[in-house]
Amino acid sequence: MGIKDIIKKSFLEGYATSDIQISTIFICIACTAVIAAYIFVLYRMINKNSFYNRNFNLSLMGMAVLTAAIILTIQSNIVVSLGMVGALSIVRFRTAIKDPMDLVFLFWSISIGIICGAGFAMIAVIASIILTVILLLFAMLPDAKSSMILVINADSYEHEEKILNTVNTICQYAKIRSRNVTRDNLNLAIEVKVKEEKELIRQLMAVECVTLASLVEHDGNITI
After folding, report:
1. Cβ atoms of 147 and 173 closer than 8 Å
2. In this predicted structure, what is the pLDDT of residue 223?
């Protein structure tokens, strides 16, 4: 056998298909599905969004199983793996992830699929347990009181200084976010931190020319 034949044989053997037993496939997919179902339940328990997105939660399960199947396929044949990498490289996901916690669960689901597909289900179980403990411990910590938006409408802009003095007297923190002034109206949007919410509204309504004062919660960044 010449050098050319040896190189050709080695090259072809490198692209040979390695058989994966059906039992191995079922065990891998089953382990992935069980852990994915656990992620589904945990996400539903600790989700704090205003509207629970069931479709997103279901997609976490599907993504874990599909990722495990892809990893199994890549292990069986290097040619298929190269083609799959090329096919997946053209996929673009344009769904915006607004909550960082959703991103954690999304990456968790993909990681479970990769780890189980590679045959390390025990690592996936241990990592899931540790991550669950971390999430639950920090979820039990009391949330810092977020700032609120104070909306004030007045019939005249001449009393703006008096309004702001009243706000600064009662609030621990106050910063004007929006100021709209016309000849007959003054509209203010102020980010505030206040404990005595009712007292703030009462004193503002006692100010001359103030026609409306309301406090609105928001999910923006917490000002320290």
Report:
1. yes
2. 46
